[in-house]
Write a structure and sequence with these properties.
This protein has 470 residues and is an alpha/beta fold. The protein has helices spanning 3-12, 14-27, 35-47, 109-129, 149-155, 207-221, 261-282, 301-314, 321-333, 336-350, 379-383, 405-409, 414-436, 439-452, and strands at 51-53, 63-69, 73-79, 134-141, 164-171, 174-175, 182-191, 230-237, 249-258, 285-294, 366-367, 388-394.
Length: 470
């Protein structure tokens, strides 16, 4: 592989991808509403000569952009959805919304999608200079944040023509591979009976009481579930704002996580029973709706090894003094728990030497593949069906938690753009390795089957639930 040519191809077009990322940062569109973000990406890739398939899997903001010919077929998984109520002015080291109450890119998906596009275009351009068999597909994947976009796309067969899929994610550290927790999002709708809370409280049946009792029950359950499991909830409907009216309706949204989908299913059944018990205690009714589900990411020895080799070639990144000064300002107002988590990972891998790492404002090390499960992503659903690699690139100062205003504030910075370009280089090198050495695809598929351990892919999303219903 001609690394100098590939570097020149990426650097030669980097400004248009930085601009695309910045525009998507400004759009900050929520799950399944990413119409401007998707259109911008489709227009850019169409100008670059990609063949575009829109409304992929029947999802208006999902699409596929293809270039090249023959096998192997390498898919790059892009995302572009934002998070609620995270609007933040760029470059400020204090929380100050640009538009109070509006969404913001607190998870860096504006960089994620643009970086995958940058890699896809570089691979396409490289194949024009060095023709070989191989197809690159950029997938515009909506609604990763709670909407399980890729899980619905898997259900519709959108990735069946891929031999391998590659993905990355912006973080405040750089790591070659981790896994994730399987996850289900479940809505519990309680229905009771309204009454005057003072004049005739005995005639009412409070749906809000049922929500509160359910939450108490789940909190008691925590003592008796897997240590690796996680359960979170948000009350999304309190039944109104009048305390003198018995609430006839209330709703709570739960996120249930565990290392594997089967464990999520078992834990969710326990949560369902607690909800039913709360309804029984309050003489209300409960309707249970599983609205999204994520499988855990299957790590792939062959692909993770390729990614790590190229990450060692590309990282750590070189920063200007101005960029480091910018990062230092955010590092000083950030959360030490963020970088201490990464330092603890390094200590596990390297012993006492790990204490010397993650000392500055920017990550100074590339963490090798680790069998660690953290967070949840619908990349997991793809990884159970197509051999997949998923890595992280430092785009924010150490001390920047994901899903925070700090990440939004740094989202258009030079350090964010530099991390995105580094990720694009790793993605492009890995994709071209697979095209030039197609025997690696067979090895990656064998690794995927071994990682399954005899289990089959499953999703908790009911067949009658459609993408975008939540």
């Amino acid at each position: 592989m001609n690394y100098e040519l590939l570097e020149a191809l990426i650097q030669g077009k980097k400004e248009q991808f930085e601009q695309a990322a910045d525009q998507i940062w400004g759009f900050a569109e929520m799950r399944y509403q990413e119409f401007q973000s998707a259109q911008l990406q489709k227009d850019l890739l169409r100008r670059e000569g990609f063949e575009i398939e829109e409304d992929l899997g029947g999802i208006p903001t999902a699409f596929r952009a293809k270039a090249g010919s023959g096998r192997p077929v390498v898919g790059l998984l892009g995302e572009f959805d934002a998070l609620p109520q995270l609007s933040q002015k760029a470059d400020l080291t204090r929380p100050e919304p640009e538009n109070p109450g509006a969404p913001g890119h607190g998870c860096g998906h504006h960089l994620l999608g643009a970086g995958c596009m940058q890699a896809a275009v570089a691979v396409k351009d490289y194949l024009l200079e060095h023709p070989c068999q191989g197809t690159v597909i950029y997938y515009g994947c909506p609604a990763e944040e709670g909407g399980a976009g890729k899980a619905f796309m898997v259900r519709e067969g959108c990735f069946e023509d891929c031999d391998v899929c590659l993905a990355w994610h912006p973080y405040s550290a750089t790591f070659a591979s981790v896994s994730s927790l399987a996850n289900a999002r479940i809505i519990y709708n309680f229905t009771g009976k309204s009454a005057h809370a003072a004049a005739a409280p005995h005639l009412g049946r409070s749906a809000l009481d049922a929500v509160e009792l359910m939450n108490v029950g789940v909190n008691y359950m925590r003592e008796h579930m897997l240590p690796e499991a996680r359960v979170h909830y948000a009350v999304t409907d309190t039944g109104g704002d009048a305390p003198n009216v018995v609430q006839a309706h209330a709703q709570v949204l739960y996120s249930v996580r565990a290392p594997r989908t089967g464990q999520v299913y078992e834990l969710a059944q326990r949560v369902h029973n607690i909800a039913r018990g709360a309804a029984l205690m309050t003489e209300t009714q409960v309707d249970i709706q599983v609205v999204s589900s994520y499988a855990d990411v299957l790590q792939n020895k062959t692909l993770d090894g390729l990614v790590y080799r190229h990450m060692q070639e590309v990282f750590p990144l070189s920063y200007t003094e101005e960029e480091l000064a910018y990062a230092q300002r955010f590092h000083e107002v950030g959360d030490p728990g963020d970088w201490k988590t990464y330092q603890a990972m390094a200590v596990k891998l390297l012993g006492e030497k790990g204490q010397e790492l993650f000392q500055g404002a920017m990550a100074d090390v590339c963490v090798p593949p680790m069998p660690l499960k953290t967070g949840s992503t619908d990349v997991g659903d793809v990884s159970w069906n197509v051999p997949t690699a998923w890595f992280g690139s430092a785009c924010f100062a150490l001390g920047t938690p994901a899903h925070s205003w700090l990440a939004v504030a740094q989202g258009k910075s030079a350090i964010a753009h530099r991390g995105m370009a580094g990720a694009a280089m790793v993605l492009a090198r890995t994709a071209l390795d697979l095209m030039e050495q197609p025997q690696l695809v067979d090895s990656a598929r064998a690794d995927m089957e071994r990682a399954k351990g005899g289990a089959e892919y499953q999703t908790l999303i009911p067949t009658d639930v459609k993408a975008g219903s939540f």
